[in-house]
Amino acid sequence: MTQQTDMTELHWLFDMLQHIDAGLVVINEKYEVELWNGFMENHSGVSSSNARNRSLFEIFPTINQSWLQQKLDNALALRTPIYVSWEQRPHMFPFKSYRSVTSIADTMFQNVVIRPINNANGTVNHLCLVVYDVTDVAVNKAALSAANRKLDQMSKTDGLTELNNRASLDRAMKLTFDSFAMGNSGPHCLVMADIDHFKRVNDSYGHPIGDIVLQEMAKILSSGSRRGDFVGRYGGEEFAVLLLNTDKNGAQVYCEKIREQVEQRVFNTSKGDIKITVSLGCSEIGKQHETIEQWIESADSALYQAKHNGRNQTVIAD
């Protein structure tokens, strides 16, 4: 009766190993397969009878043999389990993903545990590799990370023009001012640009057309700037450009280039062609600016002077 019970339990054990939702592979010291369960059969396309007594590296020639051998040898020598996360290595075995929810993942993401198997006499000459399909976890985490990156980008970007928003501008200007105040950088220039008579555009053509003009203005400012410059929408039809490592002479060249591009540009809209101009005020940061507010006010005053002088021009603050 005891022998029959033992045989029944052994049958149950083998049946459970065959149908468990994880891969089970037992290999010897020569990396030859001695056990290969149903999970491995289903995902590899290699039957248990064909896998048995063959080297793991013969069955999967694309596995990084030197990397995996080191892991296996360490587990045998140290007699301690080794855990390989999908975040370290997306997969050990090149299985295709089959879950509909994870259609964006072509290959199964896996967590693998390499566990030494103790013999009855205490020796260890076999290893068990347990393979878990964690594709859903990996894809969900990737989707969450992508969503967080998008939210972070949205928090820093003006929705209409896709330039940096006011909060981002304020942070950039503060960092620049603080760095200059500590004697760590310079020269830097702050440019304020304002579309001339923009209210007329909105009144004559409507706000949707005004939005198109703002978007095109943003493209002109961005295309005319260098990689290290910081371009943003300051508010309404006013834009700010932080020209790093640029003195007022270089800033004037930049401003005039932008002004001429805007003046020569014809904005094609559904309600006809529109021509606009832009006024620009610029201030180079200096010792006379005791606070960041004074630096911004200096650029604003230069912009006001450009407007007062007739618009469509650049004024550099003294």
From TrEMBL:
<dbReference type="InterPro" id="IPR050469">
    <property type="entry name" value="Diguanylate_Cyclase"/>
</dbReference>
<dbReference type="Pfam" id="PF00990">
    <property type="entry name" value="GGDEF"/>
</dbReference>
<protein>
    <recommendedName>
        <fullName>diguanylate cyclase</fullName>
        <ecNumber>2.7.7.65</ecNumber>
    </recommendedName>
</protein>
<dbReference type="GO" id="GO:0052621">
    <property type="term" value="F:diguanylate cyclase activity"/>
</dbReference>
<feature type="domain" description="GGDEF">
    <location>
        <begin position="186"/>
        <end position="318"/>
    </location>
</feature>
<dbReference type="Pfam" id="PF08448">
    <property type="entry name" value="PAS_4"/>
</dbReference>
<dbReference type="InterPro" id="IPR029787">
    <property type="entry name" value="Nucleotide_cyclase"/>
</dbReference>
<dbReference type="InterPro" id="IPR013656">
    <property type="entry name" value="PAS_4"/>
</dbReference>
<dbReference type="InterPro" id="IPR000160">
    <property type="entry name" value="GGDEF_dom"/>
</dbReference>
<dbReference type="InterPro" id="IPR043128">
    <property type="entry name" value="Rev_trsase/Diguanyl_cyclase"/>
</dbReference>
<dbReference type="InterPro" id="IPR035965">
    <property type="entry name" value="PAS-like_dom_sf"/>
</dbReference>
